[in-house]
Predict the structure of 28900_t:CDS:1.
Amino acid sequence: MSNSQFILLTSSILDENTISLIKCNLGRYYIECNDRKSILRFLDVNDALKLGNGKRSPPKSFILFRKSFQSSITQMALKIERAQISKHATVLWAYIKNAQPHLYYYFKNVSEEATDRYNTSNLKILMYDPYRSTNSTNVKGISREEIACEDSEYLEYLEDDSSQYDSVLCAFDPSRLDSPDVKNVILDLYPEIS
């Protein structure tokens, strides 16, 4: 069995606790406190998805790191308050972002991949109603009066230029819902209604 050598990367000192992020010559990362070490376990995409229980979107990269960090603290049977754990994690995370970018990008990529999987399996339809906007103009800078004055079409499609997708916003006049054209479209889309 080879003798591992440890390199101190950074430490967080709060109150009487000093928690260090260290790396061994084999490439593993550890959390050390009070001469106890615990391997920093990296959460994967499946772990990130489990954190949301399928009901919430997966956590962002810092929270994934914090969960891994907290798990290491728990394995060492340390009694540290949750607020203190977060403060220590914040210090270590700032170091990781600046000096260990591969770790930062690992957690970031896991978070993004988990979020993509979550969003794919939990599709949501977002509806935009320009009449309920809190401002007098919608995202395209068109006032309610301009939208209400559109008589040429029953439906007006506005393309959101700020989006990288070809998303379409649909604005309509609710008083026109009884028109024959709207009824025909609804019947075409949902024939079981008739």
